[in-house]
C-alpha cells in the first residue's frame, strides 16, 4: 500500500510519527532521437516557426519595420496595415479565431499543435538538439550525468548550457524587437543603453525560455499547461490520436529477426517507443493526457517493425472507434462531418469572414468631433447663430491625405474654417477648429441634429459623423 501511495505522490506518516514526503522528485528524461516521416515534419515546423519568429522583426515595409507593436505611440504595424487603439476589435477577432481554430483542430486531430508548433515543444526540441550535439546521444548523456563532477564534465556541461543561454538571450532580444525597432536595439547594443522595460523583458523572456525549455521541459506539458487538462472535453471516439494496436501487438515478447512465434504479437517489447517519448510515457498503456502527439513513438516503432519484417503501423494515428472496429480506417475522413466539428468550423468561419469583411471596408482615416461646450452659442455680426467644433482627423494610412469638411442638417447652414482643405501626413493627426452658422429662425431654442462629412480628396473616401447645433 505504501508503494502505491508513493507512486501517486502523497504524504504518509510512519508509525513513529516521522512525516516523510512521498512526492517523487523530477526524474530527468533522456529522449532518444527518432528518425522517420514525423520526425522530419517536426524539424520542418521547428525551422518554419523560428524563421517567422526571428525573421519578422528584420523585415522592412515602406521605410519602417514591417511588424512593430509601438506601445508608446499606440500603433500596431502589420505590413501595410496599421491598427489603432480604436481597432482593437480586430485583436479580439484574432484571439477568437485562434481559440476556435485550436478547438476545431483538437477535435479533428488531437494535440498536433502541441507536438509540432507549441513554443514549449519547439524550444525544448532545440535545447535537446544542442544537448545531443554537445553531450552525445541518449546513452552518453545518461552516462555523463552519472559521472562525478570533473573538469571534463564541467567543460561539456558548461558548453552545452552556455549555448542554450545564448540562444535564450537571442529569443528575448527578438521579443523586444517586436516592440522597439530592431535598428534602435542594434544601435544601443555596444553600450547596452536600453530602457528599463526593454532590459526587463529581454532577460525575463530569456530566463523563462532557458528555465522551461532547458530544465523543466516535459514538466511544463504535464503539470503546468492547462490545455493538457481540458483537451479531453474536445476529444471523442472519432478524434485522430496516436494509438497502440493492442490486438495486433499482444502478447509482447522478444524474438529474433524472421523468427515466427504463433503465441506472440508483433510487439517485441524493445521499449524504444518509451525511450523516444519526450514526456517519458508508455503509449502501450493507452491514451494519456501527457501525450503531446509528436509521433516520435510511431517513427521508432515503424523502424523496429521494418527490421523484424513485420508491417508498419503497430503504433499509428487512428481513432478510438476505428481501433475498436466500428468502421474501417479508410472511413476516418468521412467522420469529419460530425456535428461538433461542423459547429466549430462554422463559428470559426463566421468570425474570420466578418473580420476580413470589416478590414476590407475599413476607412483610411478616422474622425472625432467635439462641440465647444465653453461657449454653446453666440451671435455673429451678420445676425447668425454660431457653434464652434473641434474636429480631429486621424490619418491611419501611410500616405499623405488631403481632406475637405462639409456640414448639413439645417436649412442654410454653412461652415466657416480657416483651412478649406486640411493636409494630414501619413500616420499622424490634425486638430481643426471650425464654426457652423445658421439663421436664428432656423435654429430655434434647443438642440438640433447636424451631420459633418469629412472627405478624403486623396482616396475618394468619406466619413459622416453626427453632432448637434445649439440654438437660442
Question: Can you put this structure into words, describing what you see?
Answer:
Strands 10, 11, 12, 14 and 16 form a five-stranded antiparallel β-sheet that branches. Mean pLDDT is 88; it is low at 4-10. It is built from 16 helices and 18 strands. With 472 residues, the protein is an alpha+beta fold. The chain has three domains: 37-87 and 118-231, no CATH class; 236-331, Alpha-Beta Plaits (2-Layer Sandwich), CATH 3.30.70; 365-471, Sandwich (Immunoglobulin-like), CATH 2.60.40. α3 (89-109) runs antiparallel to α16, α5 crosses α9 and α7 (151-177) packs across α9 (196-216). A hairpin with a 2-residue loop joins β6 (75-78) and β7 (81-83). Residues 258-286 form the 4Fe-4S ferredoxin-type domain. The chain crosses the membrane at residues 37-56, 76-103, 162-179, 199-216, 341-361.
Largest beta-sheet characterization: 5 strands, antiparallel
How many β strands by DSSP?
Answer: 18
How many structural domains are formed by the residues? 3
Find the structural class using helix and strand composition: alpha+beta
How many H/I helices?
Answer: 16
Unreliable residue runs: 4-10
The 3D shape can be described as elongated
What percent of the residues sit in helical stretches (DSSP H or I)? 40-55%
Give the mean pLDDT. Answer: 88
Alpha-carbon distance between the two ends? 91 Å
Strand content: 15-25%
Rg (CA only): 33 Å
Organism: Vogesella aquatica
Protein name: Cytochrome c oxidase accessory protein CcoG
Keywords: 4Fe-4S, Electron transport, Iron, Iron-sulfur, Membrane, Metal-binding, Transmembrane, Transmembrane helix, Transport
Transmembrane segments: 37-56, 76-103, 162-179, 199-216, 341-361
